[in-house]
Design goal:
By secondary structure, this protein is an alpha+beta fold. Helix content is about 40%, strand content about 25%. Strands 1-3-2 form a three-stranded antiparallel beta sheet. Helix 1 (about 30-35) packs across helix 2 (about 50-60). The chain starts with about 25 loop residues before the first helix and ends with a helix.
Length: about 100
């Protein structure tokens, strides 16, 4: 049993099933603008590793901690998987406000 990646031969008949994934750019400036206005930014189709990288980039650019969480955003087309990002201080404030309202 090998511990290496499998290699598949792609024939002309298989190219209809083959989908090449291109790199997509993260709109950091737009996400940062949304976050700094106090809103939540949702970026679809991120895996955990990429989401962590985006979080670090946003924290460096904003100079403040950023809250990140996996999330589904439901649209007319169906749910989109991705991650939400917002200023961590806003998240802490909302949690404290909610806990004060309970007790």
């Amino acid at each position: 049993m090998s511990n290496s990646y499998p290699v598949r031969k792609i024939t002309d008949k298989d190219t209809l099933r083959l989908r090449v994934k291109g790199r997509r750019k993260i709109p950091y400036d737009e996400a940062l603008r949304i976050i700094m206005e106090g809103y939540t930014a949702f970026i679809p189709d991120l895996n955990r590793k990429m989401a962590s990288y985006v979080k670090r980039q946003l924290e460096e650019r904003a100079g403040t901690p950023i809250f990140m969480e996996p999330s589904d955003y439901v649209t007319e087309k169906g749910p989109e998987n991705g991650y939400i990002f917002k200023v961590a201080l806003v998240e802490r404030y909302l949690e404290e406000k909610a806990s004060r309202g309970r007790g």
